[in-house]
Amino acid sequence: FFLSLSVFLCSVFTCTNKDSDEDGLSYEVGQTPGTQRQRGKKNGLKCTTAASGGRSNATVLHSQSLNAEPRVPAYWVIPSGVTKVEGEVGFKIDFTSAAAKKKNLDKAINGDGNHQQGLRTCSAPSAFASRVEPPTEQDMKVFRERLSKAGDNAIALSLVPEHCNSFRDPVKPTPAPKSLKAVRNTKLDNADYSTLLEYCDKIKDCANMTPEQASKLERKTREQSKCEEWFAARAGRVTASQLHAVCHTSIESPSKTTVSSVCYPQRNCASTKPGDPRHWGITQEETARHQYTAVMAESHVGFCAEKCGLFVNPEFPYIGASPDGLVKCTCCGSGCLEVKCPFKHKLKTVRQACQEDKTFCLQFDQGKFTMKKNHRFYAQVQCQIFVTNTEFCDFVVWTEKDLCIVRVEPDPEFFSAQRERAKIFFEKVALPELVAKHFSRCHINCKPIASAHPSSKVTKSKTKPVSSGASASQQPQPRLPLCSSPGKMNTAKTKEVTQKRALSISPTKKRSPVKRGSRSLKTLWCYCRRTEEEDDMVACDNENCEVKWFHLSCVGLQCIPREDDAWFCPTCDQQTH
């Protein structure tokens, strides 16, 4: 009877009011002090709990007065009969009820050995469980497929080979993409072109990379030309600065200069020696960037510009772009930045350059500057916009006299055609060159047919027999030569100067005549004093030129001049004006 009474009292909570004045209150189980405080604005309370476990001990829990700070959470004071409270791990606490303990005690007294001490569990399998057969491998396969399609990424699937690839280890770093130079296969050096194309068709996905890899590559190459990884990632990819040349060369017989600049970017890196016009442009780029940022910050909200590395879009990974920066503002969104500092026009305003130079990248029409769509810089800018997934590109032209900012919008139709052309070039030119140096071997085996003797007759197309593959009418206008003769800070120009005028020039020092038959691959040419196998060559139209033959890359040309255009080297061009 007393045991039953104790169990009953354990479930009864009685809260009594010890004060008879207005400040006292009483509440039942389920009511909070806050509820009663709102009801009667009471201040103090005392809650008495009757509990029993083998003995009739009453535990009284008191709450602190709540009138000082209403939002302070209530806390319970240690019962008066308890002197020490120790914590215990949950699974070691015995939550067995008194009735269960009584039942176990009776079984022990009666000698029943089947009773179980401690927590009660069901150790024997049920009748239903004994009738269920274990699943077959096919059943498990179907189950795992359904579990995978549920889309919750059940962790059990990470241990199954068929589904483990959908789980990415957060600890393991993203693997860096391999350079395309790794596809080199010396066994195919003597293979014919058709065999190479079949092999390249199998490995054309070697340029693919995940968005994570592309993002990591951009972060690691922000030093651009000062970073080895920047050159390694560019090798084999058609970059923005090369897109125009790639789209204007023959696929069957591509220009060696274009092939070399795409596949071996480090070998064809622009000279940065003091005195070279390209060196001047590079050194002034930071000044132009600061002026551009200052101008844009005045008229754009939250404007900022930061440097960036090499971008590769996973949708077309055979193309890359390295803008001079990324820009962002609240009013216009995100864009990219391309800065040009033309040495040729450094002492002119941009408007003067547009009026005096027909080959200039900008045109001034109806009171504003716009880019010429047939200029190679336009292809470069469009490529940067689509590769970086930005909304515009700010094309900046800086001189010592002027700063011009032209905002270029995306041209999807233009870039779509350029993109397809770049894909064909990558698969049929870049990959065969990377795998077996196919086009390099073809160029080395070619012999120039024009004589190098200074007294021989010089025609207006003085090049090696390797051409860009395009007819004279299809070839684009040649780019202006960018480098000057050694030791002089003159600007290279290409103008229509008659051969008669050029012949009237008397150079200060004539080059010693070269004996007939002495021309070979070991003969040194050009300003750089290197052999002709380094690059395609072009001859100056001045028959009295001291150097005569020049590598295209050394004089800033990307393609061979047209048949009907006279071309003079930087030194001779300066002497004619």
UniProtKB/TrEMBL annotation:
Start-end of Low complexity biased regions: 454-477
PHD-type domain ranges (all copies): 523-575
Iron-sulfur is among the record's keywords: no
Domain of life: Eukaryota
Any one GO molecular-function label of the UniProt entry: zinc ion binding
Signal peptide: 1-18
UniProt region (Disordered), positions on chain: 29-49, 452-516
CDD domains hit by this protein: PDDEXK_lambda_exonuclease-like
Sorted UniProt keywords: Metal-binding, Signal, Zinc, Zinc-finger
GO biological process, alphabetically ordered: DNA repair
InterPro entries: PDDEXK-like_dom_sf, Restrct_endonuc-II-like, YqaJ_viral_recombinase, Zinc_finger_PHD-type_CS, Znf_FYVE_PHD, Znf_PHD, Znf_PHD-finger, Znf_RING/FYVE/PHD
Pfam families recorded: PHD (PF00628), YqaJ (PF09588)
Gene3D superfamilies noted in UniProt: 3.90.320.10, Zinc/RING finger domain, C3HC4 (zinc finger)
PANTHER family per record: ATP-DEPENDENT DNA HELICASE, SWIM-TYPE DOMAIN-CONTAINING PROTEIN
Protein name: PHD-type domain-containing protein
Species this protein is from: Batillaria attramentaria
Lineage of producing organism: Eukaryota, Metazoa, Spiralia, Lophotrochozoa, Mollusca
